[in-house]
Amino acid sequence: MPLATTRRAGLVDQVIDQLRDAIAQGEWPIGQRIPTEPELVAQLGVGRNTVREAVRALAHTGILEVRQGDGTYVRATSEVSGALRRLCGTELREVLLVRRTLEVEGARLAAAARTDADLAVLRALLDRRDTDQRDGRVDDFARTDAEFHLEIVRCGHNSLLFELYRGLMEAITASVASTYDAPEHAEVIKHRGLVDAIEARDATRAATEAGGFLDELLARA
Asked: Measured by CB atoms within 10 angstroms of the end CB, which terminus of the chain is less buried, N or C?
């Protein structure tokens, strides 16, 4: 995919988007070195600092790896797969334990405080999540599932809990993707019972549903 000269506004974000798209479309496969900083500056029509900031941002997400004196290499094709490279074993278990703490209370609050509009958004996200899962779109499923759980926390209308959970979204999304391919995953984790409990304003059942599937994941981790 040829890189295009960027507009003046939001240069770093534009460069990040172009580099991310080029990697996702296979312009530079995993393990390959991307063009040098001067080459990217010439192709994109931006300054060195802009390219440097964009590369640094993508390295932070795990998509790129900067090797001093050697160049910058592609490590992953998306933020999800990049995060997965850093999330395994003990760290995965820690993320799941934190998720359980926040999501159980989030579900309890959602059952007590949700509105009809909240519920409609929640069911729409659940439908999209289930479609992504059924079609085997792992990255899309991981993002949508994480958004679904974030929406449950938002339905509790506790802004501090929401901000705490939102701050962990990268790790949460990676934990979803890393447990996706368990053989019994599609059978165990459906979440319909969780949404039904929230709709019924049954806080105890909502908390049980939220904790139950995470207990299953912790048993496998």
From this structure: N
Dihedral pair phi/psi, residue 102, rounded to 5°:
-75, -40
Strand partners, 66: 72
Residue ranges in the chain assigned as alpha helix (H): 11-24, 37-44, 48-61, 79-84, 89-113, 116-134, 138-155, 159-166, 169-178, 185-188, 192-199, 203-220
Per-residue model confidence as pLDDT tens digits over 135-156: 888 888 888 999 999 999 999 9
Q: 32-47 burial string, b = 16+ CB within 10 Å, else e?
A: eebbeeeebbeebebe
Nearest to 35 by CA among 91, 73, 87: 73
Check: CB of residue 177 under 8 Å from CB of residue 161.
Answer: no
Query: What average pLDDT does the segment 49-74 reach?
Result: 91
Which of the 8 DSSP states describes residue 73? E
As given in the structure block, the two tokens for residue 156 are 């509790």
Decide if 171 contacts 137 (C-beta within 8 A). no
H or E stretch at 74: strand 71-74
**Residue 109 in this model has a pLDDT that exceeds 60:** yes
Residues 208-219: tens digit of each pLDDT:
999 999 998 898
Q: Is the dihedral of CA 215, 161, 150, 201 positive or negative?
A: positive
The answer for residues whose C-beta is within 8 angstroms of residue 85's C-beta and 6 or more apart is 62, 75, 76
User: Among 32, 50, 33, 29, which Cα is nearest to 41's?
Assistant: 50
